[in-house]
Amino acid sequence: MGVSILPNIKASVKSVKKDAKRRARNVFEKDRFKKAQKQVLAAIASGDAEKAKELLPAAHKAIDQAAANNTIHKNNAARKKSKLTLKVNALSA
Question: Which range marks the domain in which residue 90 is found?
């Protein structure tokens, strides 16, 4: 990114601050649910069905929280949860 120059207009200054807060929250939420998702996928890749089942609720919670904070769309969250669950179920079957 380039040089950060604050605008002169008060409303624009406030917008810049709000945007920074929103971006920080979005980055945190995305990072959290991606880490949870990767942990489940790593357990699946290693063939550890018990660990995958154990990590799945935490991943679902992280995905739901990202959707609740409008970081990702609710349908995107549902799709991610569904795919993870299908993979875990296929491993244990």
Answer: 47-93
For the chain, what is the radius of gyration of the CA atoms? Answer: 18
Residue ranges with strand state E in the chain? none
**How far is it, in rounded angstroms, from Cα 33 to Cα 21?**
19
Task: Identify whether 14 is part of a domain.
Answer: no
What is the pTM assigned to this prediction?
0.83
Number of domains in the chain: 1
23-72 per-position pLDDT tens digit: 999 999 999 999 999 999 999 999 999 999 999 999 999 999 999 999 99
Question: Would residue 21 count as lying in a domain?
Answer: no
Alpha helices (H) along 47-73: 49-68
Specify if 19 maps to a domain. no
The residue whose two tokens read 């919670």 is 61
